[in-house]
Amino acid sequence: MLEVVVEETMNCAPDDFLEFVLDVHRYAEVDDKIGAIDWARREGDRTDFRFRPVLPGIPGPAPKMVMRVQRAGDTIEMSMTPLPHNRFIRHLVSFGATFEAAPVDGGTLVRSVTSMNVTPVARWPMEAILRRTLPDNIRAELDRAAVYLDRQTARKQRLS
Predict the structure, then answer these.
(1) What is the residue-wise DSSP string for 53-111?
(2) Does position 60 have pLDDT exceeding 80, yes or no?
(3) Taking all residues of the chain, what is their mean pLDDT, rounded to a whole number?
(4) How many CB atoms sit inside 10 A of residue 96's CB?
(5) CA 155, CA 22: separation in Å to the nearest integer?
(6) d(CA 110, CA 118)
(7) Which InterPro entries match (predicted)?
(8) Rg value, the chain, Cα
(9) Which domains does the chain have, with CATH numbers?
(10) Could you give the CA distance from residue 66 to residue 52 in angstroms, rounded to a whole number?
C-alpha cells in the first residue's frame, strides 16, 4: 500500500477549491495524472468521468479508467466507480483519494491523501517506481492548483 499526504494553503474559499476539483476538465489542467478525458457527467456534488490515467514514471498507455468524484461537506472523495466499470484495471491497482478543505487565515488549507494498492501481479515494477515519483508529483499538482486558484481569485477581485 502506498499513501501520499500533502498539505497546501490555497488563496481561495473552501467552496472554490472543492468546485474546482469537481470540474474535472479544469482540474486536469493542474493534474498531469489525468490524461485525455473521454466523457464527464456531473450531477450535483458528484462527477463521474472516463479517462486514460498517466502514472508518473510508468511508461506506456494505461487502460482507461472511470472515476467518481464525490463531495461530502468540506471533503472530496475520489474512487473508481463500481462494476461494471474498471474490470481490467481492478486486477492491477486500487485507488482512492480525498481532499479536505478547511478555512484558515489567508485562504484554505487543503489536505490531500492519495492511496494506491498495487496487486501482486503488478507490484514489483509499479510500486517501486510510484514510491519514488508519486509524492513529488502530487506536491507539484497542489502547487499548480494553488497558482491556478490564485489567478482565479485575483481575477474575481478585479472584476468586482
Answers:
(1) E--TT--SPPPPEEEEEEEETTEEEEEEPPTTTTTTGGGTEEEEEEEEEEEETTEEEEE
(2) no
(3) 90
(4) 14
(5) 20
(6) 26
(7) Polyketide_cyclase/dehydratase, START-like_dom_sf
(8) 16
(9) 2-159 (3.30.530.20)
(10) 9
